[in-house]
């Protein structure tokens, strides 16, 4: 979809025609510079922030760049900072925001801006290319893979990720220190590593995954502030369920000589 394409059906009035007036303060600009601009739009009483942006685009700012796709909290495209907090704009009801102040909408700060509310999130895709991949072992005698329900449940949470990059955006390790982008994969990718590490059918040597987490993904930079967990729209417990187990794995691999010896003798992973 072109960045400026207008979907007027997304701002249809509610049954009964109740509307609300919204004061928007939207960041407009490019990598070369920009500014916040004020607008007033009329939207459906139950509208979300993305509706207001679409109404703005349809009526006053046809060149406003805003990225979206599903308008249902499933694609992760519409991430932005609303009143300073990273959010999916399609899942943020205007009625949940203070009515007496403008709704301030800015692009995610951690990534370079392309135009208006559209950032360049290609950093994340470059990291994704470097990640270890799932390597299943041979199938069972009946030709099938088998996992217990407990094993399925343990990693199910991680597979809810919609790659909205809100956790990446809020993580201070890269948000405030862009020089760390070369050394730190970010919370979304710790979720991916944890999903692999806890997958009972994956055959990647666990010490290699631990080395990757430590040396390539930079899990040591994380100081467990839990900011990533707080903004995750899928309610993934990133810190407790992914990052801390990975850190424990790294410590085990590096510092536990008995575990190392036991694995050498038994061949266990
Ligand atoms: S818990 Fe770690 S990965 Fe998550 S935001 Fe804090 S420093 Fe970043
Ligand atoms: S872990 Fe949560 S916040 Fe991070 S990219 Fe996935 S869905 Fe978004
Ligand atoms: S438009 Fe798909 S998550 Fe918001």
Task: Walk me through the structure.
It is a single chain. The protein has 269 residues and is of the alpha+beta class. Helices cover 34% and strands 15% of the residues. The protein contains 10 helices and 7 strands. The protein has helices at residues 49-59, 122-130, 149-156, 166-170, 172-175, 187-197, 206-216, 227-231, 238-255, 257-266; strands at residues 19-30, 33-44, 79-82, 85-88, 103-106, 113-115, 118-119. The protein has a 5-stranded mixed β-sheet. Strand 3 (79-82) and strand 4 (85-88) form a beta hairpin. Mean pLDDT is 91; it is low at 1-14.
Helices and strands, in order, run as EEHEEEEEHHHHHHHHH
From the alpha-carbon coordinates, what is the Rg to the nearest angstrom?
A: 22 Å
What fraction of the residues are assigned to beta strands by DSSP?
A: 15-25%
State the distance separating the first and last CA atoms: 46 Å
Q: Sum up the overall morphology in one term.
A: elongated
Give the tally of β-strands: 7
Instruction: Enumerate the distinct ligands.
Output: iron/sulfur cluster, FE2/S2 (inorganic) cluster
The gist of it:
It contains 10 helices and 7 strands. The chain is of the alpha+beta class and 269 residues long. The longest helix is centred in the C-terminal third of the chain and has 18 residues, at 238-255.
How do the helices and strands line up, and which of them pair or pack?
Blueprint: E1 19-30, E2 33-44, H1 49-59, E3 79-82, E4 85-88, E5 103-106, E6 113-115, E7 118-119, H2 122-130, H3 149-156, H4 166-170, H5 172-175, H6 187-197, H7 206-216, H8 227-231, H9 238-255, H10 257-266
Parallel strand pairs: 1-5
Antiparallel strand pairs: 1-2, 3-4, 3-5, 6-7
Helix pairs in contact: 6-9, 7-9
Bound molecules: iron/sulfur cluster (SF4) (2 copies) and FE2/S2 (inorganic) cluster.
One iron/sulfur cluster binds next to helix 4 and helix 6.
